[in-house]
Design goal:
single chain; about 140 residues; mainly alpha
Amino acid sequence: MKRDFKLFIFVWLYLNLLRVISLITIVFLFILNFLFVAKYFYYREFHTNFNEMVFNAVNDDVKALFYTMIEQYHLLECIIIIILFTAIVVYILKKYLAWQWIKKSFKFEKSLVFKISAIVFTLVFALFVRFGASFS
């Protein structure tokens, strides 16, 4: 009986692997978007990136911190924005991954303009992600 259950789980994971990977991707993108937005508000308040002060919040009153985040930092509105942004990023990611298969038939990768624009976009995006809210 136990062996049949393990086999069932293995077959289910194998058949639904893309759904599981997609769910994990969505969860990680949500976490990364949440941290990016939190970094923005943290920088706006303290004019520095995350540091050891974040870990000191464990010693504070959690209930008071939660109400402060809801009332002063508009946590609920930010969560809605994060969910929408995550949905947009997941949609773009799925379209991009589907486009990769078509791209090979058109030979875009041999174009010098495409290579240069991909490198420039990657560098600008990495710079934006690195500095985040302190980019202003």
